[in-house]
Amino acid sequence: MTTLKIAIPKGKLQPAITELLSDIGIKLYGDVRNYRPGCSDERLEVKLLKGQNIPSLIEIGQHDIGFAGLDWVAEQDADVEVINNLGFNPVRIVACIPEDWDVKELKQRPIIVATEYINLARQYLDNQGFDYQLIRSYGATEVFPPEDADMVIDNTSTGTTIKTNRLKIIDTVYRSSTQFIANKQTLKNQAKRAIIDDILLLMNGVLNARERVLLEMNCPKAVVSDIVKLLPAMRSPTVSELYNSDAYSIRAAVPTKSAPGLIPRLIAAGAVDILELPIRKAV
């Protein structure tokens, strides 16, 4: 039987990825401290790893597929295939200096820059013309200035930690989110590629479903056309005649964000008995 080795980042990304896998029917089980959890799909061999290690391990074929931030793929210049942008944990890699400092002044002298992203930082600083020395940080990068570094290049989602440490963002170096990645040689193996394509199909179905809800409603025949015009369906709404009645039922998958504003308009157009239902998959 063909099996795939799959790497999942342990830590803050793990719950979202585990939930996504569960929603497509792949359940992980075992002790939460176990780095090799069991899997309901016998074709998959799962290992939990630090996210920074996953791109390089997939590149050299230690694992077939996995999940990693695009920032670490770029930082390591990992030669892997990005097969799906999941959009989880969107972050910016930003350059920051003390809030009362002037970046123009820093360009006039040698500076010390602390970062976990040595390669991305070097590319940015070279392009911006800084005279710099890099220090690799191992977490808590924002505490370095002003005593131990003049600048930090770090990731942020909200900017709150940066502001709390009296720093200001002077530039965005890179943008990142969680990616589903694969070893390039693995994708050339037909049996393994078939499994990956199955996972990808279901994964996209779940991700599409999360962005939509199903609206069902009834209405008189006279207003069917008016209601259909209001519905931003995936293709076109389903319209069917109700049994033993001159009324009609209309069903459409609509963007989740549009539903709150759409429902009052549907009622005003003559819709009744409106149901809003979750969608598990939209393939």
From TrEMBL:
Its main location: cytoplasm. Pathway: Amino-acid biosynthesis; L-histidine biosynthesis; L-histidine from 5-phospho-alpha-D-ribose 1-diphosphate: step 1/9. The keyword Coiled coil does not apply. It is found in: Cytoplasm. GO terms for molecular function: ATP binding; ATP phosphoribosyltransferase activity; magnesium ion binding. One of its GO terms (cellular component) is cytoplasm. Catalyzes the condensation of ATP and 5-phosphoribose 1-diphosphate to form N'-(5'-phosphoribosyl)-ATP (PR-ATP). Has a crucial role in the pathway because the rate of histidine biosynthesis seems to be controlled primarily by regulation of HisG enzymatic activity. This is ATP phosphoribosyltransferase. It comes from Marinicella pacifica. The lineage of its organism: Bacteria, Pseudomonadati, Pseudomonadota, Gammaproteobacteria, Lysobacterales.
